């Protein structure tokens, strides 16, 4: 058993039925399991950013949608996945994020489901601000200094 909740399985099945493999991979990368996104899902999404026929705005919107979840685990995994794609994905992904006025509006995020949710809420608010700033700095400079090969 993979540990996914029934909600996670239903959401992944819905994306499979609609034919959106990218949305399905985002859903599978941002499950309710308390562990990082699986490498195979992150690798698939990185590869998808390099495909010319993949809709980058739809991919980003699916990640933003997952970040509106009430569970800190899902939101955290959506932020981690977005950050991973910003760093390792095709530059078109971060260009799209930089073109948006707002990314994550999580300044009031609070998971009241338990003490761990309260503890992680502060970190999630901080992490979302960091990603917003990273996209904003890319918009200002048109360059990501973290991507420079050393």
From TrEMBL:
Keyword Transport: no
GO molecular function annotations of the record: phospholipid binding
Keywords linked to the UniProt accession: Cell membrane, Coated pit, Membrane, Phosphoprotein
Major localization class: membrane
GO biological process assignments: clathrin coat assembly; clathrin-dependent endocytosis; regulation of receptor-mediated endocytosis
Entry keyword annotation includes Manganese: no
GO cellular component: clathrin-coated pit; plasma membrane
Intracellular or extracellular location(s): Cell membrane; Membrane, Coated pit
Domain of life: Eukaryota
Domain ENTH: 14-145
Similarity section: Belongs to the PICALM/SNAP91 family.
Record protein name field: Synaptosome associated protein 91
Classification of source organism: Eukaryota, Metazoa, Chordata, Craniata, Vertebrata
């Amino acid at each position: 058993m993979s540990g996914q909740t029934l909600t996670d399985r239903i959401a992944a099945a819905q994306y499979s039925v609609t034919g959106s493999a990218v949305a399905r991979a985002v859903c599978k990368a941002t499950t309710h399991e308390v562990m990082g996104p699986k490498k195979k899902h992150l690798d698939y999404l990185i590869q998808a950013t390099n495909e010319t026929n993949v809709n980058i705005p739809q991919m980003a919107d699916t990640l933003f949608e997952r970040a509106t979840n009430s569970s800190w685990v899902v939101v955290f995994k959506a932020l981690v996945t977005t950050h991973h794609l910003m760093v390792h994905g095709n530059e078109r992904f971060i260009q799209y994020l930089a073109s948006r006025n707002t990314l994550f509006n999580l300044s009031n995020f609070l998971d009241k489901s338990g003490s761990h949710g309260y503890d992680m809420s502060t970190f999630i608010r901080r992490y979302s601000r960091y990603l917003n700033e990273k996209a904003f700095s890319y918009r200002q400079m048109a360059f990501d200094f973290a991507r420079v090969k050393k």
